[in-house]
Specification:
The structure is a single chain. The protein is of the alpha+beta class. It has a single domain, classed as Glutaredoxin (3-Layer(aba) Sandwich), CATH 3.40.30.10. It contains seven helices and ten strands. The strands form two sheets. Strands 1, 2, 3, 4, 5, 6, 8 and 9 form an eight-stranded mixed beta sheet that branches.
């Protein structure tokens, strides 16, 4: 349900509460190249996924890199596999992320199959997928309170501590860019 009190607040993606397709393949970035892609359910056998989805061809995604890194780091060691999903091939993903490509699990999504499966309309996005493949929470664009709600959902499911969003130095709210380019 959308809150019309702010132009940065949108309805949750249509896929929240829905299960991701079992044939969705996530391809990791390994040593700067595309690794072996595996179905999403293989990535979810033990851990949930806490994913920040980025489009390296837009300013909006670059504006949240520091904040996204800070939010994801809070869940390192939890029962959520923290990761970045970049809508590009391995070379572009590595160039966009710089040293973050070494700090996080990175999935390359050049055809935006994961973006479509998650029902995202805007990027950047923060998506929490539980071990059963259900998209449990999502925030699109950069609305700090929505990102904090996703962090709270992760903390509740994983029995972890959440993080306040926005944090020091985080940008003000803004709408994301169209998710399908």
């Amino acid at each position: 349900m959308a809150d019309t009190t702010s132009d940065t607040t949108r309805a949750v993606p249509s896929k929240v509460g829905d299960k991701l397709p079992t044939d969705l393949v996530l391809t990791p970035l390994v040593d700067g190249s595309a690794g072996q892609g595996r179905p999403v359910m293989e990535w979810l056998t033990t851990f949930h996924l806490a994913s920040v989805v980025l489009d390296p061809y837009t300013n909006e995604s670059s504006w949240v890199l520091r904040a996204a890194s800070r939010v994801l780091e809070q869940f390192r060691g939890s029962d959520a596999r923290i990761n970045l999903i970049v809508t590009a091939g391995p070379n572009e993903a590595r160039a966009f992320l710089g040293p973050l490509a070494e700090r996080f699990l990175v999935f390359c999504d050049p055809d935006r199959a994961a973006v479509r499966a998650m029902g995202l309309d805007e990027l950047p996005a923060f998506v929490f997928t539980t071990v059963d493949g259900v998209v449990a929470a999502a925030a699109e664009g950069w609305n700090p309170h929505e990102w904090e709600a996703v962090a709270d959902a992760i903390a509740e499911v994983t029995w972890w501590t959440s993080i306040p969003v926005p944090g020091p130095g985080d940008p003000g709210p803004f709408r994301g860019s169209p998710s399908l380019g």
